Every structure is written in C-alpha cells, then in structure tokens.
Amino acid sequence: MNVSIFGATGATGKLLTERCLKAGYKVKVLAREPGTFPFADRVEAVQGDAKDQNAVRKTVEGADLVLNALGARSLKREEVLEVAVPLIVSAMQEQGIRRIIALGSAGALDSSLDKQSGLRRWIVQHIVYNTFLKWPVASQRAQYAALSGSGLDWTMVMPPMLLNAPARGNLRVDGDALPRDASRIARCDVADFMMAQIGNPEWVGKGVYVAW
C-alpha cells in the first residue's frame, strides 16, 4: 500500500510514519527539511510546505491512502488547516484517491461537549475553546467542514488533550460526542486508532471521538 502522510514531522505524524513503515507500506511525506526527518532513509520525501499546491499534489500522487496529522504548533492564528486541507482534498479529487484519515480535535463540532456536565461544558466551551484554544479550534472546525463536504471516504479522529505518554489501549470511542469527563489520551493510542481505520468502513464519512 502507498501511503502519503501530511504532518509527518510532528509528534503524532512521526508515530504514524513509524507504524506505516512497520506495516510494510510505502510511505511518502511532505517536509520542509526532509534531511532532518528521522525516517528520511526509509521514506520518499517531498520538500515543501502544506500550503503549496504543487507540493501537496506531488505528495498525494500515487497514494492509496492519505493520513493527515497537520495541526497548530502554537495558540496563535496559523491557518495551516484552513489552507492545507482544501488543497489536499482537491489533489485527491483530481487524482481519484478516495481514503483520508485525519487527526482532528474534540473541539471541532458544537456537539462535542453534549455528554459533559453543565459546569464542565461551560468551562471547556467558554474558557478553553473560546479563549485559550480559539484559533486551533477554528482550524479544526475548518478541517471538518472541508472533509465533510469533500465527497471523499474520510474519517476525522477527534481526541481531547494529547499526551506523550505510554499507550493504554483501552479507549472510549464515541461517534456522537466526547465521552463524559474525558480530558486526555496518549498520542500512541490515537496513532494506533488511526491505523486501525485503514480498511475499516465503520467510521467512513464520519468524525469519531477517542479518549481515555
């Protein structure tokens, strides 16, 4: 299988790359500085930026599957997803590539907090989503809109806070909202869940929440 990975140089992207290589997939990544990528000698690297249409097209070319682990690197307004995801979608449509599995976040939809208590819902919505994470959340909402309107076989995995911690494996998975009192999950668990969606039709055309 040929897999193209966006955001491969990020923390979760590296985990996805490692897992794809272990599975025996042929991997192509987009990187600003391919020479510094830990798996540079085992992947095909396209040098460039995810906001560049030509670089995105080259990265997607020949793929059977696209994994997107792009995301905000700060709390500032970056608009990486607002620009990059439509470019990825367009390139996939042009080349007839159907399947994309994307890393999102729990704040991508208004309904994400429906299973939380009233106080917790108010705190997370008004203090976290509307203040500290205002711009990252806006980017994830844009990603969801681009994927859900794409006509592709998409899945957006939406975790709460990501931790650089050992995997537990015992996830709570919900297609409607973030599980009650869920607040964190290990990147390893999220990467494993994303990999498990390859060939799995259960969450195609849907967003899905995962948490401890």
The total beta strand count reads 10
- The sequence of SSEs as H and E is EHEEHEHEHHEEEEHE
Strand content: 15-25%
- How far apart are the first and last residues' alpha carbons, in Å? 30 Å
Proportion of residues in helical segments: 25-40%
Shape: globular
Give the uncertain stretches in residue-range form: none
Please give the radius of gyration in angstroms. Answer: 16 Å
Summarize the structure.
The chain is α/β, with parallel strands linked by helices.
Give a description of the structure.
The mean pLDDT is 96. This protein has an eight-stranded mixed beta sheet, sandwiched between helices. Strands 7-9 form a two-stranded parallel ribbon. It has helices spanning 11-22, 53-60, 80-95, 118-132, 134-148, 187-196, and strands spanning 2-6, 26-31, 44-47, 65-68, 99-103, 153-158, 161-163, 172-174, 184-186, 206-211. It is α/β, with parallel strands linked by helices. Helix 1 links the parallel strand 1 and strand 2. 36% of the residues lie in helices and 21% in strands. It has a single domain, classed as Rossmann fold (3-Layer(aba) Sandwich).
